[in-house]
Design a protein that fits this description.
With about 575 residues, the chain is an alpha/beta fold. The chain has four domains: about 55 residues; about 350 residues, Rossmann fold (3-Layer(aba) Sandwich); about 90 residues; about 60 residues. Helices cover about 50% and strands about 10% of the residues. The protein contains 20 helices and twelve strands. A twelve-stranded mixed sheet has the order 2-1-12-11-10-3-9-8-4-7-5-6, with helices on both faces. Strand 1 and strand 2 form a beta hairpin. The longest helix is centred in the last third of the chain and has 45 residues. The N and C termini lie far apart (about 105 Å).
Length: about 575
């Protein structure tokens, strides 16, 4: 048998013995001792089978061992796979790791669907949290929620972990669940339209550059006019107001706004609202400091944004993540280079963020990625190929975990070549290796604690210690109900905002117009009465000493009384 087969057989034997030992709790004491002894012996045999002395160490293994030998704390990724297919064998002594202090130099986890990206994300998140660093991640398919539940072992899992030297133990990581606008399970994450801003909103609505510029003008007008934009209804109200006769006059000093452009934006907003986006905007808005919490035992809390309800709204999902990242960038203080990050942010399905993005939007992302490391935040983009990420962003990613790529089409083959061109020089034939990686294997290179790229390593990745299945919904609901943040975010707030203010102004204007109309009608009535009374006065003055009849006097007095009362009412209403 080859060294690889010996190691595999010994590891499987260890796994079976460990499973027997686990069942010994219900067995008689003598039998339990026998099983425990067998498990210990099998484990020792497995360790010997995979020890460096029993596996020939090649030149690349020595290079990897030296290249990943960091002094400080590190995240364990797995062990080098050495040899030539099909005789590949893990080398536990050649550990592949990421320095904890380098996580704020950002990273990329890429690979085709079904190659293990989500499990790699879980492995990273578990260990980062174990080092006392909070984690934020989006859980698109619900698979990542298993991080909150301790995993369960089987023979296959134990054989795999033993082969790479992983001392696997079931671990549940402290987890907080969030949901966009409360759609689905989780604490509601909301934002105001004001804070979301015109650039991100234009990306969600699919506006062109001219329409984005016009939307920016609308936001500027709303700020100068003290019209808070909280929800979509507020933005629609301001747009409608600016196309009215009064609004056109008010906007004239700031520049024109095309009625056609306003029409496009309004139509997009209506469609956006029909998708349920009204639930995402409002108050109380999320305080990003709540993502930087640690558990009483010192472990970082994993904040999971549960988004299964918005899988059909990819632009909203990805742009909302960018909004949260922007908030972190704006609100967190500068910390410089520190021994571990304040937060690690996993940006899943990153290709959705960059697709059809405007230049302004890409500039916003690039600037945020470049500067946010000084705030102590590390970002990992998770996507299918590196070409999904713009070059200016990709150049800033220090760690790379590349799962299998497929090259079944001309476009895929082109993406493969583009991926290979982004790696440091290596002895591997990456075109062959990247298409032959197994599930749970990856090509890894990271930024060392000296700031230089580490050797490229074909790596068998560690297994998650949490469950690989989603946490049951009942347990998620119980966690949300017990969360200390529920009182803060559980109930929506409806403050006075632009739509109410404009409605009140419109109502006041209508009342004033009605008052003016009433006043004009009363003045006309008073003038008519005075004109009727005038012939009586002239008749009296021209008659000389002729005495008026009692009837004439009564009519004249009544007319004057009516006129006085009408005029009095007019002036009373004016006051």
């Amino acid at each position: 048998m080859t060294a690889s087969e010996d190691a595999r057989a010994a590891a499987e034997q260890a796994a079976r013995a460990a499973a027997d030992a686990q069942q010994a709790a219900d067995a008689p004491q003598e039998r339990a001792e026998q099983l425990a002894a067998a498990a210990e012996a099998a484990a020792a045999g497995a360790a010997a089978a995979v020890a460096p002395e029993s596996v020939p160490v090649s030149e690349i293994a020595e290079i990897v061992r030296a290249g990943y030998a960091f002094d400080g704390a590190a995240i364990e990724m797995g062990a080098l796979l050495d040899g030539t297919p099909p005789d590949l064998a893990p080398v536990p002594s050649a550990r592949v790791r990421i320095p904890l202090a380098m996580l704020n130099r950002h990273g990329l986890v890429a690979g085709a669907t079904g190659t293990g990206k989500t499990k790699t994300l879980q492995v990273l998140a578990e260990q980062i949290a174990a080092h006392g660093v909070p984690v934020f991640a989006a859980d698109i398919k619900g698979d990542l929620s298993g991080i909150a539940t301790a995993g369960s072992a089987d023979e296959k899992l134990l054989a795999r972990t033993a082969s790479i030297g992983q001392d696997w133990q079931p671990v549940a990581t402290p987890t907080e669940y969030f949901a966009l606008g409360g759609i689905g399970q989780g604490l509601p994450v909301r934002a105001t339209i004001d804070d979301f801003g015109p650039t991100l909103l234009s990306k969600v609505l699919g506006l062109n550059a001219t329409q984005e510029s016009s939307l920016g003008l609308v936001f500027h007008y709303a700020r100068t006019a003290s019209l808070p934009l909280v929800g979509l209804a507020d933005l629609r109200a301001v747009l409608t107001h600016l196309t009215s006769d009064i609004g056109k006059v008010e906007l004239k000093a700031l520049g024109g706004l095309s009625a056609a452009t306003v029409g496009v934006i309004l139509r997009e907003l209506i469609g956006f609202a029909d998708e349920g986006a009204d639930d995402f905007f409002g108050r109380p808005e999320i305080d990003v400091a709540d993502f930087l919490r640690t558990a009483p035992d010192g472990r970082g809390i994993v904040s999971l944004l549960e988004v299964p309800g918005v899988q059909d709204k990819p632009a909203l999902f990805s742009t909302f993540l960018m909004y949260l990242l922007n908030r972190l960038f704006k609100e967190l203080p500068e910390v410089g280079d520190i021994d571990k990050p304040k937060l690690v942010f996993f940006f899943d399905e990153a290709h959705l963020l960059f697709a059809d993005a405007s230049d302004d939007f890409l500039e916003t992302i690039t600037q945020t990625v470049r500067l946010i490391r000084s705030k102590g935040v590390g970002i990992f983009f998770v996507t299918q190929t590196p070409k999904d990420v713009p070059g200016d962003v990709l150049a800033q990613l220090g760690s790379r975990v590349q799962h299998q790529l497929r090259a079944h089409t001309p476009d895929a083959a082109k993406a493969l070549k583009a991926t290979i061109s982004t790696y440091p020089n290596t002895a591997y034939d990456l075109e062959e290796v990247l298409t032959s990686l197994g599930i749970g294997e990856a090509i890894v290179t990271v930024m060392s604690d000296k700031g230089a790229p580490t050797p490229v390593a074909w790596t068998r990745l560690r297994a998650p210690q949490g469950s690989m299945d989603p946490t049951p919904p009942a347990e998620v609901s119980a966690a949300v109900t017990a969360s200390p943040l529920l009182a803060k975010y559980g109930t929506a707030i409806d403050p006075e905002s632009a739509s109410e203010i404009l409605d009140a102004q419109a109502a006041a204007g209508a009342a004033a117009a009605q008052q003016a109309a009433d006043d004009a009608r009363l003045r006309q009535e008073a003038d008519r009465i005075r004109k009727q009374d005038a012939p009586v006065k002239r008749s009296r003055s021209t008659s000389g000493s002729r005495r008026m009849s009692p009837l004439d006097r009564a009519v004249g007095e009544a007319s004057r009384t009516i006129a006085r009362e009408l005029i009095k009412n007019v002036f009373k209403r004016r006051r």
